[in-house]
């Protein structure tokens, strides 16, 4: 189980790094621009989470595998970007995986640092979404996250489920829930985001009344 | 006195959260977008201040009332935004209160963390203005703060007054000033910003000479 | 030697502060806008570096000379901006000095905080480039850094050289290299960026294949 989460974690980072590198491709940057934006997008959300948690160190400081993964994914994108753009559909689904995993991992790390429930949910949402927010902000374009259907909402569901199940596992007789908290929460977020992609689900947008 | 400052502090946060949610309304976001931008705008300035001060924790970490206030204000804005837009004048004045209070509270917190005078003034200005800067930057629009009349300047006056009066209160025979530092500084910032709103005051803008 | 680095460090900060104030001039801001953007651009890169390193405090917290230098440079720009715009060429070269110095100082500070090699290189690149990234992002304009020729690349070379030479100096019989690490690395970054300016060198940009 632990290994699967570790694998999904890396997968999420790769996917976000690729999306950052693709944004660099649209801007016709050089290869260092690819690496810069790929890495920022891949590690951005988790970095802000760690700064806000005042964690001992940001997660990529000692374990440089995270940075290498982002760099390699960005360089690979440089060579295959013209294929990936026709693979947009694949990326959309891979991004849904990243979103689901990061929302749960973000909430989990916040609980480890003894954050209150509300803060843990917020950290999950933030870990899942701030990488792309920073990327778009630095590139001076409106954040795509705001246009996507049920994106932040799916991150909220993942984080909320994890926090809820973890609380439940603390009750007498319910400790067997603990082992299920991570996969069930990731699954819930993924199901919601996946349905939104498939069926074009949306929350109602604000409409000014005249 | 302490309770009034606490009340004004919450009021400032509510006002900034509403301004963030109104920005989300202009973008036709869904309700989670309202909450996201309302919360970022409400707590953004103080959060960056706490990170730069390397405070023990960011101010909303243990005391989740701040987050709840931002969330509630954002949700409320969702339902009444079409009224609030015609109440733009009210919001402008409420924003002036938030600006005044935050500039003084920011400087106060910096002094508590033993910041030098100049740093304390900068922290006051930052607490008052960075929430809206982050909001506009994430939304990809030019920061409104740069267009407003005497906005940063009023924050500077509030922070500067507080730091000056606090220094004065340290002199022998002037300790009675201590109790007045907060209200007088908030009042000074509010007076300046209020005059700017009423009389359209501006500092001279830079004009290129040909 | 140490004094020369300290001088170049201040020079780099002045140059970046001026470039921030010039961006404020293009926006026709008032003098506090000049100070705000000049200071953010001057200290931005190093501040993010210190936050990510979880350094004891951000570098301008106790030693306020950095802030004063940024403020003075911004105010001076207010008065002479119309000359500086015709001096764009001078600024371009001064900016190259700032870039070179900051990339090496950033890597050096990261090594002092025991960062792994890859992290140290990244910190050098970040210190040299994030000031202008933040400035452009807050002003809502696309980052100039992305358009400049071999900009991030030169920062990477400076940081990489410093880390490499420092590693070399740790080998038996090579300790005499230690004294040369800083000037050689700064020189390498400056040479590369300078050549790029003179000869319009570029890395190949990404080109979509149809």
Please supply descriptive tags for the structure shown above:
homotrimer; mainly alpha; 74% helix; 0% strand; globular
Question: Would you mind describing this structure in some detail?
Answer:
The structure is a homotrimer of 210-residue chains. With 210 residues, chain A is mostly helical. Chain A has one domain. Chain A is 74% helix and 0% strand. The first copy, chain A, has seven helices and no strands. The first copy, chain A, has helices at 2-26, 31-53, 65-84, 88-112, 117-138, 152-169, 178-199. In chain A, α1 (2-26) packs across α2 (31-53). The longest helix of chain A is centred in the first third of the chain and has 25 residues, at 2-26. The termini of chain A are far apart. The mean pLDDT of chain A is 87.
What is the helix/strand order of chain A?
Answer: HHHHHHH
The mean pLDDT of chain A is: 87
| Termini separation of chain A | 54 Å
Helix content of chain A: over 70%
Poorly predicted regions of chain A:
none
Instruction: Report the total helices of chain A.
Output: 7
Supply Rg of chain A. 17 Å
Number of strands of chain A: 0
Percent of residues in β-strands of chain A: under 5%
Biggest interface, CB < 8 A: A-B, 29 and 31 residues
Chain oligomer state: homotrimer
**Could you say how many structural domains of chain A there are in total?**
1
Query: Which structural class should the secondary elements of chain A be placed in?
Result: mainly alpha
**Overall geometric form of chain A:** globular
Biggest sheet character of chain A: none
